[in-house]
């Protein structure tokens, strides 16, 4: 930019009294020019924003009209429901957890048509996954803090059980009369409890919560087709809730076809002067009959009690 004072810029020159008004006039002139430029920039930005808005509106228009002619829109309901079923993950995967991220739930939230079709596809809701946290009782807290700490842990466990109970109720309802595939991983033990009195609150919450879930599953045992249990069971049969899943009569599981059970015993520390209440639970497993009218496959593992499996009788309707 040209200026009558170019040769003096960036120097130690001191303008005279006559030159100062001229310099101020030059400054004001360029301030006015900047104001004009800013106005042009604002107009250009407004024009650009308007163009971008028009472009976005046209892209939305195109996308929505492309959706109208999407091939999947023309699939008959039976084919589309088959596609839905192909989205289901393996029963033990994290993605199979019964949460808002489960494929069945995601599919049901796409549109009204898909939602209704998802509800009309019972098989989409026929896989029940129940994975419960392993509860830990910290024995290193001072006695005065034990109840507070255990009470907080019990509350967390109760909230998990309630969420699983509610989700299972929904899945069972939406699966209607379909055969069920069930995966359950749970423990009746409370780790870390040195004194049984310290873990009383936790133990009560664990057993009560497991009892609710087991009762819900047993209410639909006639629909069990495939079950996989990974259970840690206490030896006291009067307290155990999970063991109720293992002693069912043939008429209770008429269509049970495939069973896989992994059982570990829970070893509780016994306080001085307290007699063990362990029963012949493991002997009961060894001499009991695990059978079903339609049973085709059975896998049974008891890592801590392998010797107890000797002589186990397994009867199945189809060998």
Automatic annotation (TrEMBL):
Cited Pfam families: F-box-like
Matches recorded under Gene3D superfamilies: 1.20.1280.50
Top-level lineage group: Eukaryota
Positions of the F-box domain: 73-128
Name listed for the protein in its UniProt record: F-box domain-containing protein
